[in-house]
Write a sequence for this structure.
């Protein structure tokens, strides 16, 4: 590893530095994904633009409309934020199973999204929560629906040089329940073999008004099981429907075999996770 | 048995002598060690499992910035080495026969410069056919991993044939007859996967040549003298010209018994004429370390109506990898584990090690233990189930008891197995084997030996009345040297903190077989105790003279000899000796007495009789998630016959750590290899258990004293890694009915298997 480190003081400053460099530079926040990629030679960068001291991109803000998470907010910040945890238990559940304490203390939400691993835990949770990604680039600021962010493994729709400034989550409607579940070989320090985030909003008479099923590590990107969501929406959820939705979610996945697990296992387990996730949400409703 | 005598130092939970430095971070490990002017070495490794080296061009690499030396097989004449067969080369010469085999080394000003320069070395390979499966490798038509195997020097005990690099047999009675008389005969095949030893500190060495034929190596080996003699053999210089020092070692677990980075550091340092440090990266550890051998175990057992074993036929086939390494030893000792601690009227047990083009393997903690124990103890449960017997009852009907003759003809003494079974079963609540849906309990028992090998100890009385003990082993983190010091302190009437331990330097300490084989505390304490007795005699003689009394009239108390009201302290004795001449020093050596066995039963066995055997039972209570296949261990109990606990705290630590290591092999750890290439060579995907994966390990110490051991102690370090795979497999079967016969027992196998 051999690179020049440029410290950015603001988002605009970061964009300025980026504009001044030849190709081959990268942003770095916590470095927990990037440094390993550089070390293993998966990526090479001559210049790293360090975002970590940009004050405006830190912390979690809460207002009447919802939450704004700075891109530099760490998994630990999420885990410890009471308002956010109460509103979206799935997000907290995802944040608190990222790596170990050391990783959670430095790994950021922006990095988790921009790295665009299909197994990224917080990204999968945010996908179920309809997060809006605030991005800034040479053409100014814009908001991207999270479902439009991911393309494939390590590919996003961010333009070259565009950075993630923040992530916005709307205040949940009254009867919203969410859950995040993950499977791996160990009970901690584990990259998801399969993960599932479920968010269900219920109206009067316990009819499910909105359903989100986000799945990790069962396709080239964190994906939504949209047909399964449609099965749930407008319905009263019972055991039979949960089983049908879970089977449908499974059918929407295209898992691969790799040393962590076979496609057959992922496929079977994703159904189980979705079933459990929905049941958890229904159980508390 | 008479009531145990109260001791002052042994048997006590005293703090480790090396504890403070390790807790505060002050302790220096081999990886902390540096020298002025030191360079950094890196190794270029083969990307092919089997290939002819057509050409190596290092000219571009030599011109890279910071590069000081480049070494290949052609540039330095180095001798082959290997424990039992000389089948290792330092750098490949004409051929590479496994992925990861070192082809060249570079020493440069920084690790980074060395790494960059590696990429500039051009190697042209012509690929050759390779073999990765042991069964295929045994086929006559398979490519030979070493076509020149007949010309490779080997120990006489090694029986070779092509890719089969060793064969050991134990034979008793007539198995065919036994099977004919059996009520039922069971045949199964089990498989295990390679695992890493899991030490925290990677293998590292700093080498410096102090003359053209003299060098010092600072490294983290477990074996000073084996390392010294192997390096001497490689470089063709006398062993005494090589000084091996271990500043500190961050875990070994057998993975650091054989050469790690020492030979590369020495070769590069010689070429660069500067000290060179070589440390393996975590990726190299997980792709190119000496793993625990994967094994295939075939077992056929015949029993009578009551479940008594009438005949057992078994074979353990060990994948040695491309160089035999510890494979022959592992296969050989594996036959005893195939037998298990059971009475076997008829047995035919075979252990073979086989060359493949996989990475060479080593000796990990209880090297032959977990694989055949997993097979034997799983099968015991399968037999019990088929016969409708309680697995505990089946074991009680077959285990060895005091005075029984074991499979090798050895008469068993100090057998604490039944007590271990009783206590472990009671602790885990065996009466309720299925406490709820998807929850079950399993147990497994086993035996192991306390390895022999010589230890020596030098003692000297210091001017302040304390004692310095110099021994040729390495404190690996087991607390073995604190235990040995406790024994010496007890003998000398001193406090533990009065013992100053010097170790881990091949030049200044006496020869020792080393930190291995559950023998370190056992043998070092025995040697040191003998030396302490000698030293005390000398001190007593001086004291008697100084006090003008008879030696018999002296009483030793509070680090002084007393004659009525008169006394002379140890410090005064030392001072007197130092000024008047005849400083007080003593030495002794120890080797465990040979154990009798029936030589007609064994062929080519490395350890045909087991000195001070130990007995152990593990029991666990676990749950299986029916949807995900995930295993959660609720409780885990270890009952081990340790003979005597010199320091119960560190002994418990050994049993806890070993059980956790074994649970790793049982549930999550495996080096995944396809066509010789490791697929999970990083700590993201090689899964050692975390604190969340194992519950508190509940330890029960059973004490049937060994006659040979210090205060009755037996070797304890290796055994706890043996039983976990079988105990877990049996509990999984009890919980959900799935019998997994291939380690590790992953959620995937449980769910889809
Ligand atoms: C031991 C270990 C365990 C782990 N376990 C998990 C786990 O369980 N679950 C999980 O999801 N992840 C895990 N990870 C991965 C990683 O920690 C997370 O993805 C983390 O959130 C990445 O954030 P970071 O700030 O460290 O990203 P960095 O490494 O700094 O950056 C990652 C990528 O994102 C880009 N980037 C960073 N910030 C921005 C930004 N604001 N705008 C645009 N691009 C940006 C960088 O250029 C880089 O390409 C683990 C990593 C390690 C080392």
């Amino acid at each position: 590893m051999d690179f020049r480190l440029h410290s950015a003081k603001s988002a605009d400053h970061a964009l300025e530095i980026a504009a001044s460099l030849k190709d081959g530079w990268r942003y770095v926040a916590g470095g927990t994904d990037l440094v390993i990629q550089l070390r293993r030679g998966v990526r090479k960068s001559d210049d790293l633009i360090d975002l970590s001291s940009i004050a405006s991109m830190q912390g979690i803000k809460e207002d009447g409309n919802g939450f704004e998470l700075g891109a530099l907010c760490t998994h630990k910040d999420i885990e410890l934020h009471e308002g956010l945890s109460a509103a979206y238990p799935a997000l907290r559940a995802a944040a608190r199973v990222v790596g170990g304490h050391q990783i959670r203390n430095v790994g950021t939400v922006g990095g988790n999204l921009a790295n665009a691993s299909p197994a990224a835990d917080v990204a999968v949770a945010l996908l179920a929560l309809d997060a809006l990604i605030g991005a800034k680039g040479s053409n100014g600021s814009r908001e991207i629906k999270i479902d439009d962010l991911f393309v494939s493994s390590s590919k996003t729709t961010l333009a070259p040089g565009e950075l993630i400034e923040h992530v916005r989550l709307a205040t949940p409607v009254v009867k919203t329940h969410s859950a995040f579940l993950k499977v791996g070989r160990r009970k901690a320090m584990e990259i998801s073999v399969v993960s599932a985030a479920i968010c269900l909003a219920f109206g009067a008479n316990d009819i499910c008004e909105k359903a989100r099923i986000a799945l990790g590590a069962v396709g080239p990107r964190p994906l939504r099981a949209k047909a399964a969501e449609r099965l749930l929406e407008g319905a009263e959820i019972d055991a039979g429907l949960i089983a049908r939705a879970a089977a449908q979610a499974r059918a929407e996945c295209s898992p691969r075999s790799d040393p962590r697990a076979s496609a057959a296992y992922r496929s079977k387990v994703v159904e189980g996770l979705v079933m459990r996730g929905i049941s958890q949400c229904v159980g508390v409703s | 048995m008479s009531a145990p005598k109260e001791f002052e130092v042994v048997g006590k939970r005293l703090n480790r002598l090396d504890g403070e430095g390790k807790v505060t971070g002050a302790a220096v490990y081999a990886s902390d060690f540096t020298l002025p002017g030191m360079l950094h070495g890196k190794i270029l490794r083969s990307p092919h499992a089997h290939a002819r080296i057509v050409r190596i061009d290092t000219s571009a690499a030599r011109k890279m910035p910071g590069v000081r030396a480049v070494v290949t097989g052609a540039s330095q004449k180095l001798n082959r080495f290997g424990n039992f067969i000389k089948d290792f080369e330092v750098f490949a010469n004409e051929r590479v026969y496994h992925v990861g085999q070192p082809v060249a080394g570079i020493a440069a000003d920084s690790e980074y410069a060395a790494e960059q320069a590696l990429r500039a070395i051009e190697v042209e390979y012509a690929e050759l056919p390779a073999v990765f499966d042991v069964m295929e490798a045994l086929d006559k038509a398979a490519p030979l991993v070493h076509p020149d195997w007949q010309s490779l020097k080997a120990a006489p005990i090694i029986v070779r044939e092509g890719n089969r690099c060793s064969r050991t047999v134990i034979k008793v009675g007539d198995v065919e007859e036994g099977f004919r008389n059996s009520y039922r005969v069971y045949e199964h095949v089990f498989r295990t996967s390679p695992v890493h030893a899991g030490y925290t500190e990677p293998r590292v060495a700093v080498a410096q040549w102090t003359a053209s034929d003299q060098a010092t190596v600072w490294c983290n080996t477990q074996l000073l003298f084996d390392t010294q003699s192997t390096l001497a053999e490689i470089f063709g210089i006398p062993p005494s010209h090589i000084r091996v020092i271990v500043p500190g070692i961050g875990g070994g677990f057998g993975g650091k018994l054989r050469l790690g980075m020492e030979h590369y550091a020495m070769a590069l340092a010689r070429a660069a004429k500067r000290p060179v440090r070589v440390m393996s990266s975590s990726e190299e550890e997980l792709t190119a370390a000496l793993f625990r051998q994967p094994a295939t175990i075939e077992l056929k057992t015949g029993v009578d109506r009551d479940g008594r074993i009438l005949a057992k036929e078994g074979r353990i086939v060990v994948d040695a990898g491309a160089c035999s390494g510890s494979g022959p030893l592992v296969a050989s000792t594996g036959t005893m584990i195939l037998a298990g601690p059971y009475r076997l009227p008829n047995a035919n047990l075979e252990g073979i090690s086989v060359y493949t083009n996989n990475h060479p393997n080593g000796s990990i903690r209880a090297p032959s233990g977990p694989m055949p124990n997993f097979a034997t103890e799983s099968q015991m449960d399968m037999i019990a189930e088929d016969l409708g017997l309680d697995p505990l009852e089946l074991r009680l009907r077959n285990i060895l008891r005091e005075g029984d003759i074991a499979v090798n003809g050895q008469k068993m003494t100090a057998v604490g197995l039944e007590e271990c079974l009783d206590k472990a079963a009671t602790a885990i609540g065996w009466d309720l084997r299925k406490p709820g849906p998807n929850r079950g309990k399993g147990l497994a028992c086993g035996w192991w030996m306390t390895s022999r090998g010589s230890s020596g100890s030098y003692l000297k009385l210091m001017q302040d009345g304390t004692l310095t003990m110099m021994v040729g082993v390495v404190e690996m983190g087991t607390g073995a040297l604190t235990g040995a010091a406790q024994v010496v302190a007890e003998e000398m009437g001193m406090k533990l903190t009065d013992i100053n331990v010097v170790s881990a330097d091949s030049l200044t300490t006496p020869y020792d077989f080393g930190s291995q084989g559950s023998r370190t505390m056992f043998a070092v304490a025995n040697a040191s105790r003998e030396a302490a007795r000698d030293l005390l005699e000398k001190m007593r003689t001086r004291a008697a003279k100084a006090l003008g009394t008879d030696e018999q009239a002296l009483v030793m108390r509070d680090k002084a000899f007393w004659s009525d009201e008169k006394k002379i302290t140890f410090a005064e004795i030392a001072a007197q000796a130092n000024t008047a001449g005849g400083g007080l020093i003593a030495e002794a050596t120890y080797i465990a007495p040979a154990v009798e066995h029936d030589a007609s039963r064994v062929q080519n066995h490395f350890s045909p009789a087991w000195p001070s055997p130990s007995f152990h039972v593990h029991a666990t209570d676990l749950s299986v998630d029916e949807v995900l296949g995930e295993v959660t261990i609720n409780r885990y109990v270890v009952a081990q016959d340790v003979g005597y606990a010199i320091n119960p705290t560190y002994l418990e630590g050994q049993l806890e750590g070993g059980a956790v290591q074994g649970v790793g092999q049982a549930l999550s750890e495996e080096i995944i290899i396809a066509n010789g290439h490791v697929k999970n060579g990083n700590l993201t995907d090689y899964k050692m258990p975390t604190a969340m994966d194992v519950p508190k390990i509940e330890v029960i110490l059973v004490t049937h004293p060994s006659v040979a051991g210090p205060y009755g102690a037996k070797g304890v370090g290796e055994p706890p890694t043996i039983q976990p795979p079988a105990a877990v497999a049996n509990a999984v079967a009890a919980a959900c009915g799935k019998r997994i016969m291939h380690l590790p027992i992953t959620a995937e196998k449980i769910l889809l298997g």
About this structure: Residues A 26-34, 36, 51, 71, 98-99, 103, 107-108, 110-112, 114-115, 120-122, 163-164, 190-191 surround flavin-adenine dinucleotide (CB under 6 Å). Chain B touches chain A through 26 residues (CB under 8 Å).
